[in-house]
Amino acid sequence: MNDTSDGMSMADDAEMADQYVQWTLKALEDMDRFITQIQELGEGDLGTRKSLYKEIYGLSHNMKGMGSSFDYLLMTDIGASLCDYLKQVPENLVPEFTVVASHVRAFRVIITNRIVGAGGEKGQAVLAKLKGMAADSLATI
Known about the structure:
Largest sheet: none
Oligomer: single chain
Order of helices and strands: HHHHH
């Protein structure tokens, strides 16, 4: 629930909402750094790649959890999609880079453009595309 004890939604608190946006932008910088490191590793160093994907999972999980509190429902839905995908990849494999990178790009578009709510028809189409990418990736494992 996104109500505070006085019945006011956290999304209605402009300062808290701005703090969420700033925290998310910082988290996205970290994710971008992890994505770059994964890309640079290529097929090498499986342990490091898995560790970087775990870092991305942790940040995504936090975005997912906080998004709905500030009316960023699409952030929550995309975070859930990414977290579900990362949890389902078998332990002996690494996630598909494009699936993860596409989710991170979607996060950035949403937060940069301050797209609140469920994102309308276009937002739901993006979410469906991301979920489809994840499902296709898992189906090939």
